[in-house]
Amino acid sequence: MTVDPSPSTRPATPLTTAQLVARARAVAARDGRTILGITGAPGAGKSTLARTIVEALGPRLAVEVGMDGFHLSNAVLEELGRRDRKGAIDTFDDAGYAALVARLGDARAGDPPVYAPVFRREIEEPIAAGVAVPGDVPLVVTEGNYLLATSGAWPDARARMAEIWYLEVPDDVRLARLEERHHAFGKSRDDARRWARGSDQANADLIVTTRDAADLVVGWSG
């Protein structure tokens, strides 16, 4: 089941890769360190867009830091009884993510690198200190499902971001991507379909309610 957009929901703005890179470059040109957030439902293409922008701008201008590095470990999720809902909003360390975003926002040229965790899909676990963010890189691009959530410490992270873009694609495209991703990382076709249309869709239904708080709602096909 998906959530129908309310009558007040503004339509997505279709933008090309070149247009989005140019907008990100303008964010990077602001004074000091700036943080650009990219959010959207599972399978929308957030990590692909973040990686595309960072590669286009180059390592002297931009680095990617994903929210998924703050997944709780499988062992912790088992203890909490949440393993079968991995990816839900309460399966992340939101306070840890907000603290990292604050550190990244405060960093300046000449400061030592800040090390951020990464998430490895092949083992379904976060890895500490997986990416270094040098102090002299002006733009951090961070992506994840819950950047616009209003509970917990998510608003603290959002407050440090210069802009947040909500990435939107048709549901059939998004679901097909999710099913293929889950299958590629070890799930059977049936299990991949059930997860995409079950747990992932429940998360998508929550995420879409945050859509209109974004600075930009963008349609991007990659």
From TrEMBL:
Pfam families: PRK
Source superkingdom: Bacteria
Keywords noted in UniProt: Kinase, Transferase
GO function terms (MF aspect): ATP binding; kinase activity
Domain Phosphoribulokinase/uridine kinase residues, every copy: 35-97
NCBIfam families documented for this protein: PRK09270.1-2 (NF006743)
Protein name (record): Fructose transport system kinase
Native source species: Isoptericola variabilis (strain 225)
